[in-house]
Amino acid sequence: MDVRLIETYQAVMTYGTTSRAAEILGMSQPAVSKAIMSLERSIGFKLFDREKGRMIPSAEGQLFFREVQISLAGLAKLRSAAARIRDYGSGDIRIACLSAFSTNLLPNAIARFRQQNPKVAVSFYVSGSSSIRDMIAANQLDIAITADEIDTNGVEATPFAEIPAALAIPPGHPLAEKEVVHPADLDRLPFVALAPEDTTRHEAEAIFAKYGVAPQVVVETAYSSTVCALVLAGLGCGIVDPITATGYIERGVTLRPLVPSVSFRTLMLFPNQKKSRIVTEMADALIEERSRLAEVR
């Protein structure tokens, strides 16, 4: 069914006469009448009763017009969506990160992005790195920041940030008096460890083994923010991302450098497809915010 015929029919129904519809559409009146007859032939029933030169909507025509209004509203929505995609990519962007960046880097980057793209809607998710990776691979997200221990097959992955870790120390702990903590200082002390699959934990364990020390692991957790909470509760020291730990310093947690140092490494992920303009601009905003935070540290 020809959309142009439908739109001509809508104009006649809306404005009451073929002459007025022709004026609005920029067509001749005979062309409008011809379009109506063509539409009637294609659908198999009369849309108008012709009485003394007047076109009066038939009962079937009135029923058909209801459906036309619904369909053309959907068509208008499609045209609007096409305009958004042309100008902004999808018109919305879906982004995710691990919890370490969910209260600082990502919110600030999104605010930076929105200043340049106020009409683009942003959906923001926080989850574990493996879950985020699977969502990227399934094209359920446009861009994400994860830890580097994930499987990168089936996604586009680029290094994002390498952040020197800090040792979080409970309030009143003797190690808080030291300017720098060495592996020997942690031997047999209660220790809040990152999850076994975490690459930062592997790096720390390699250093502990090299120096012949064995902190006493009392709790394991996947998130730096949870390590900070457990340290604050006095369960032991723990290696954390200093960006995540910022809010805990005010509550009594002390951060000290660990020498030799270990790092948190993160990746920026994309689906394996061409990036829209807005995805590229969000990536730029994330990189700019990463650089700003590095300067602050």
From TrEMBL:
InterPro entries linked: LysR_HTH_N (IPR000847), LysR_subst-bd (IPR005119), NocR_PBP2 (IPR037424), WH-like_DNA-bd_sf (IPR036388), WH_DNA-bd_sf (IPR036390)
HTH lysR-type domain segment(s): 1-58
UniProt keyword list: DNA-binding, Transcription, Transcription regulation
Gene Ontology terms, MF aspect: DNA-binding transcription factor activity; sequence-specific DNA binding
Swiss-Prot/TrEMBL GO biological process terms: lysine biosynthetic process via diaminopimelate; positive regulation of gene expression
Top-rank taxon, per record: Bacteria
SUPFAM superfamilies in the cross-refs: Periplasmic binding protein-like II (SSF53850), Winged helix' DNA-binding domain (SSF46785)
Family as reported in the entry's similarity comment: Belongs to the LysR transcriptional regulatory family.
Name recorded for this polypeptide: Transcriptional regulator, LysR family
Organism the protein comes from: Mesorhizobium metallidurans STM 2683
